[in-house]
Design goal:
Chain lengths: 364, 98
């Protein structure tokens, strides 16, 4: 691939893997980064400047729990100065009036607050943290009171899919401007817990109906993002809008990745902001060029008329299910490996299995 | 694009909703609207209108200014401005000052 890639639009800054919650579908890798390995404030500020110069428009401060980083207001202020739109992706459990006021004064543009369920007891079972729900509700109130736009994010799975209508009620009650109803994606922790989390087809259809009803009910008052579990799809999702096309992810220790699960890809050196510039990593690194565009594609992708629509689907899912990162995403009906997905779907007829918490202290 | 609401008076003062703003994208040399979890392209007409949204100017004032800038009939400019303001208010990009 010799063509110059378009500049990236969006940066997911994973400031830390530390988190008081233990959600079994966490998007962090199975091997979590210890605090000692985290980038410093100065390193992050330099990354924000580089990202803005490269063309990034929005930075999403995430984790782990990004509010576990004491320097978050400094980073938000720096992002604002660089002209970046800043979004805080948080569980809300560490938020209080004072630290939100500090972030607001630093120029934070938007908060995306995660809820594990609308039912407090079920939410706290999934999150593995007692007393989390009232703290989240208080966090939502503080954000709305400040006037900042609020998105509520719900990750959907077999154990909470019934309560999507109640999730919309909660969002309305709290004054959220956006809601994300995002079915679990099955890599990393989600894949480890797939037998407990994968919803039935009936559950999926019910969530689709609940989303359609909410769209009707709220109109333009509330923006709704709906992410389906692609196991039930016939064609794969255009993961990250294409590998290395729009999106940058930076891990707590400075690894630069085309998506948050890419550290699973074997046989490649992960570029690091401590060793190279963001521009060089985006434009020239082996990792970012590996699956960029269409030249890497195998059949049936290579001759498929959807190859620039879905970009072959998700590389991490292909790897996780087939053992080959350069295989067609097995979600695709045209993939020779589709049977692997159908087998997982047929396993959910019985009782759901118990899940394993994502514990910060458990290195894999 | 919806038709301008008949209720939209030129006396109203639009302002950007908290968490949305117009921004010049230096790298791609284009105007964009930054909003929660998305940035969308403002075409040249939209950008020209939105650059005059300052939280003090009324729609009528913006129309007057653009009528001079573009040397165009006022009713043509008014139609564009009111339709766009209505649409963006619907999408929670603009709100009205009390």
């Amino acid at each position: 691939m010799t063509a110059v890639p378009p500049p990236p639009m969006s940066l997911l800054a994973e400031l830390t893997h530390r988190c008081p919650l233990q959600c079994p579908y966490c998007s962090n890798p199975l091997a979590l980064e210890p605090k000692a390995g985290e980038l410093s404030t100065e390193e992050w500020c330099d990354i924000l400047d580089q990202a803005a110069a490269l063309g990034v428009l929005q930075v999403h401060f995430s984790g782990g729990e990004p509010m576990a980083r004491k320097d978050l207001p400094v980073l938000v202020r720096h992002a604002a100065k660089a002209g970046l739109y800043s979004n805080l992706i948080t569980s809300g459990v560490l938020m209080n009036r004072d630290n939100l006021a500090e972030l607001s004064a630093a120029g934070l543009d938007h908060v995306q607050l995660s809820f594990q369920d609308a039912d407090p007891q079920q939410a706290e079972i999934i999150g593995g943290m007692k007393g989390a729900q009232p703290r989240k509700i208080e966090a939502a109130r503080l954000v709305v009171e400040d006037g900042m736009p609020l998105t509520l994010n719900f990750v959907i799975h077999r154990l909470n899919a019934e309560r999507v209508p109640a999730m919309f009620d909660l969002a309305e009650e709290l004054g959220a401007r956006r809601v994300e109803i995002a079915h679990t994606q099955y890599y990393g922790w989600g894949l480890k817990n797939r037998a407990a989390l994968l919803p039935t087809r009936k559950q999926l259809e019910d969530t689709e109906k609940a989303v359609a009803a909410a769209r009707e009910r709220f109109g333009n008052r509330m923006a709704i993002d709906f992410v389906t579990p692609d196991y039930y799809a016939d064609e794969p999702k255009p993961c990250m809008g294409g590998w290395g096309q729009r999106f940058l992810n930076i891990s707590p220790s400075g690894r630069v990745l085309p998506c948050h699960a890419a550290e699973t890809i074997p046989g490649v050196t992960f570029p690091n902001t401590r060793e190279a510039s963001l521009a060089d990593i985006w434009g020239k690194s082996e990792l970012f060029q590996m699956f960029r565009g269409v030249d890497w594609m195998p059949e049936p992708c290579r001759s498929c008329d959807r190859k620039e629509v879905d970009w072959g689907g998700c590389r991490c899912q292909a790897l996780a299910l087939t053992g080959r990162a350069d295989a067609t995403d097995p979600v695709c009906r045209r993939s020779p490996d589709r049977g692997l997905v159908d087998a997982a779907l047929s396993e959910i007829a019985g009782e759901p299995e118990a899940f394993v918490y994502r514990r910060y202290t458990t290195p894999e | 694009m919806t038709a301008p609401s008949p209720a939209l008076s030129e006396e109203r003062v639009p302002t950007f909703a908290r968490g949305t703003r117009l921004q010049h994208d230096r790298v791609r040399d284009q105007w964009i609207v930054q909003a929660p979890e998305r940035a969308f392209l403002a075409d040249p007409v939209a950008a020209e209108i939105l650059r005059h949204v300052d939280g003090a100017s009324s729609l009528g004032g913006i129309i007057d200014t653009l009528t001079i800038v573009f040397d165009a009939p006022r009713d043509v400019i008014a139609r564009d401005v009111l339709a766009m303001a209505n649409d963006l208010a619907d999408r929670q990009v603009l709100v009205w000052k009390a």
